[in-house]
Structures are given as C-alpha cells and as structure tokens.
Amino acid sequence: PEWGSVHTIAQDHVDPNLLFVGTEFGLFYSQNGGQNWTPLKANFPTIDVRDIEIQRRENDLVIGTFGRGIYILDDYTPLRTNAAELAQSEATLFPVRDSWIYVEGDLWGPFGGAKGSNGDNFWHAENPPFGAVFSYVIRDGLESQSNARRTREIEIEKEGGDTPYPSWETLRAEDREDDPAILFIVRDGAGNVVRRITGPSGKGLHRVAWDLRYPAPDAVRLSPPPASPFSNPPVGPLVVPGQYSVTLAKRINGVVTTLSEPQTFTLKP
Question: Is the CB of residue 249 less than 8 Å from the CB of residue 256?
C-alpha cells in the first residue's frame, strides 16, 4: 500500500514470483514479482506484521504480529496458480496435500467444546482441520433458479424496467428444484467410491476437509434423533492408509457433472 511501512518479506521456494510482505497494516502477496499486491484477508486482522516464515515441507505460511500473535496459513500452494488461469475454467480443484491418518484424542472431556470444563481462562488454539483438505475455486458460483431470477430482476430494476410477477409454472419449477450442490467424490486406489461429500457452492476460494471415514452405517432417519450430551454424531469407520483420489463435480437438478480431473493423494499412517 502507499501508506504504512513494510517490515518483512518472504519469497516462495518454488515460484520465485510469489512474494509475501508484512506491513504496518496487514499481510500482502504478489504473484508477479512485486508488480501488483493483494491483501490476504481470510479472517486475518488489520495488524502490524513483523515476521514471516515459510515452512517448506508443508508449504505453510507462518506470520508473527506486533501483538505477539501467531497465524498460520495452511498449504498456501493454491496461490502459485495465477488468477487469470483460474478465470478460464468454471471450477478448479487444486492438488491435495498428503495427510496423516490417526485417531483424534478428546483431551478435555465432552463438555464445553474444545475447552471442556476448564473455564474461559483456559487458553487454547485451534488445530488445522483433521483429514484430507480439498481446496477449490468456483468462478461464478452456483445459483438456484429463484436466485438467478432475482438477480436478473435487480438489474432490470436498477435501469427502471418492469419486473412482472413470475408465472405459476416458473414458481412451481423453482419450488421443486433441488438446491445446486458442489460434490467431492473420493475413490480408493482400486477406483471404488468410498465417500461423497458436499462443499460451499458460492463464488471464490473454498476449503473442505474429509474426515478420512466411510459414510456412517446408521439407518436413515426422517427426523433427527433425540439430542443427548453424552452421544456423538454417527460416523463411519476410518479408511485404511494408501493412495486415494478426489474429483470435483456439481449437481444441478439431480444431474451430476464433473468439473475437474481427479487429484491423487496419499493417506499416511
């Protein structure tokens, strides 16, 4: 930025044109060797950034602030892809980092979330999401028929045009439409589907974590079961270590369309 001092700079160890700088008013990155800069805003505050370190094995960006805070951007490798390249495709699924497979521990007991019953003064920090993390970009976002119609009507209203009430057939089609969905289809090394999970379908960059489990074997319920503080949501068994692949797809009115080539990754014990 034109105002504010630059305190630290780091260069990506794979793409020399990818730079990170810490300034008096936040964190910025450049994909073209410093010709243009973009702020990194994903839940990151406007704060004095004094130090940047790159963890090369995991491709993590570690940021130290003047307030003695530490922030970690896990697996920043999607930033190595130029934004102009992403605009050429409806959706892009980035390479998936190999993941460790283990059983998560329940350190502090079942009550009170991550802090258990230790009280608000107990300090803790969040861990990265468990499992295999899928990073992807949706260029335009998926819209339902009703949302797409309303978007068109807003543009017409801005120009002073008329937006008549939709017909009965249009309203019926909108009411019966299944919500558009983004799907991740996970397969094992033999090509068998082990899991299908959904993700955000809005425009922009998203991340979804697969918990490395098969679907829960519990019977389907039309109504939610009675809530109990001693029970956990149903989960399936953990998959075995090995090589897996994931494909990005979209589902519109029940029709599934593939949006990406499969990305392979390894689950390590």
Answer: yes
